[in-house]
Amino acid sequence: MEFFNELTQTILNGVAIGCIYGMVALGFVLIYKSTEVINFAQGELLMLGAFISYSLITQLHLSYWTALVITILAMGIVGAILERVVLRSLVGEPTYAIVIVTIGISYFIRSVVSMVPGWGTDTYGFRTPFTDKFLRWGDVVISYEYLSIVVLAFVLIAVVFVFFGYSRMGTAMRATSQNQLAAVYMGISVTRVFSLTWTIAAALGGIGGILLAPITFVHMNMGFIGLKAVPAAVLGGFTSPPGAIVGGLIIGITESLAGVYLEEGWKDIAAWIILIAVLIIRPQGLFGIQEKKKV
């Protein structure tokens, strides 16, 4: 019975972390579907969102919910600026060149964070309305912090999917991801779609940061945690938004189980072992579609 309780608690913790991975992975997928570029700055966007929320809550003394809304808006603006100032000028350039630019953006964000007074290289934390609150289910003790992550993540993910499925701009984004040239002929502003895609992806990264911060604390290396969403995106299929969420949950649960039942160190490499296995067995991912191109 004790093993079952421990297993249940471990899986629930993994689901919470997996929801964050899934949200960040969704940002990877959205940008890849629209531009065929992997945004390696997504992890640093998560880190930046965490630092912004930290300042809003601890330095400006705003409420957690106000900080959450402002962080989402601020990160959306950051994403739009990056697309407009840096990436739009690279349209038509080789994909590898744009990928290298996203790596450069990630280092730029890290440098900026290290120079901001009150941020730097130290580790910080902040309290939320759910800190030090627990739900008891028999002998299983579940932190409200983790439960809040699951609930908030699924609500925000649902909003994103409703936007893509039922809004006019969401339809335009889906059309652009299928065929950019056809979208242009139909009168869709592809540049506007690209801008909105980066806005949403950056906002998702920021949300991941504010949700993850109370668990891992706020520090500059959070970007490396965000990069664990890459295996989640690959596992689900880099062209499948639902697959990104499922992939995130699988990675989160696997990491949590490895951290409890395997030797120290396995937790950090579990996601990458899954990534390698998936690339060998099913390169298109669990929900991805294998594309064949004639040469």
TrEMBL record:
Main location: membrane
GO molecular function: transmembrane transporter activity
One GO cellular component term: plasma membrane
Keywords: Amino-acid transport, Cell membrane, Membrane, Transmembrane, Transmembrane helix, Transport
GO biological process, one term: amino acid transport
Mode of membrane association: Multi-pass membrane protein
Residue spans crossing the bilayer: 12-32, 63-82, 94-113, 146-166, 200-220, 232-254, 269-289
Localization per record: Cell membrane
Source domain of life: Bacteria
Family to which this protein belongs: Belongs to the binding-protein-dependent transport system permease family. LivHM subfamily.
Protein name, UniProt field: Inner-membrane translocator
Native source species: Desulfatibacillum aliphaticivorans
